[in-house]
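Might I ask for a little of your time on a matter of protein folding? What I wish to show you is a protein chain and, alongside it, a tokenised description of its three-dimensional fold. I should value your view on which stretches of the chain appear to form regular backbone elements. You will find the record immediately after this paragraph:
***
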Amino acid sequence: MRSTRTSAPLRRGRRTVLTATGLVAVLALTATACGGSEEDKASDKPDAGTSQAADSDGGKVRIPSDIADKLKEHGIDADQWKNGGWEDWDKDKWLREAKDFVNPVIEGLWKPERMRSAEEADKTVTTKDASAAQGVSDPEPAPVEAQAEKTPYHENAAPVGKVFFDSPDGPSVCSGTVIKDVNHPGKSNLVWTAGHCVHAGGNGGWYRNLVFVPAYNDLGKSEAELGNANASEIAPYGNWWADWASTSNGWIQGGSETGGDGAAYDYAVLHVKPEQGSKSLEETVGAALDVDFSAPSAAEAGDMGAWGYPAAPPYNGLQMFKCLDAPGRFSLSPGLPTMYRIGCTMTGGSSGGGWFRVLDGKTVLVSNTSIGPTDNTWLAGPQLGRDAEALYQNMSKTYGGQ
């Protein structure tokens, strides 16, 4: 697909901001973290039949037997991995291991300064073929200027956070949202983000050292104010390592650095566990959102809001922003599923951030930021239907209780 205009995920433009007061009011979720019980600690125990992140045990990596065997199959020594072996990005080997997500905990890896060094995940740069989309896409929306979220974030957008990971190009960053686990009410360890924030698509494999940080920089401090910030200021609820990640086959097979045929399937779910602690993510943060898998049409969906941490200029990734708009239809090709599109000036780094709408009086996640143009005037995100729900259900039933 060639086009007269390049587009990149999470960068957008400017338009008149809608007064979606209902959406903003409902999203303002105050964290009310609950105390954990002994029963809660069971979720920290690795199951030998599942893929879990490694635990820290006396300074050594402790990995369930199935993952230890998988690492050995790929010639990976757990201790070497922890001590820097994960930085070996042999391209051929990476491709062969694309089906295997292995993410051992490396305690202390994601320090505040390393998080600040992470660059936006610009893996969904895509070209917009206007002629191919005629009759499928609605007219391009007017830009909507992104608005800074009020602080502290845990009182105004508690489920939102940042997703950090390592790619062959170095530390990278996206955004993500704490979602409810229908099979484990009140104790969710699930995070929604974009597929390109966990997997490189058709030309690569799974990224490494995936961590979710809810309410990152909770008080919205400036770069100067964070010069000597400690870990609790940057990550008030700690670091949550993904012990499993799932994204769509559509993204794995069709996703590319130019978005490709995988853009409409650019979503992912993480199951996470705390680097330290025993309570679930939902209990710790005090909030989580349901996911709307009804895939309403753009005309039926009503107003939507996109939340995230834009990191590419003019933003620096330290503060949370949001855009509110009425969605339109967008497609890269008549043969691909229709996506949602809203006006928004957020840039790279907001990728994976949740899109929310009000359904039956409560805020639900309806999409996530995937792609957008290089002039940062709009964002597009996938419609979440049966395939997305099946991916979510499988993650919940298979790994949710761990």
In short: DSSP finds eleven helices and 22 strands in the chain. Residues 5-35+120-399 form a domain with the Thrombin, subunit H fold (CATH 2.40.10.120).
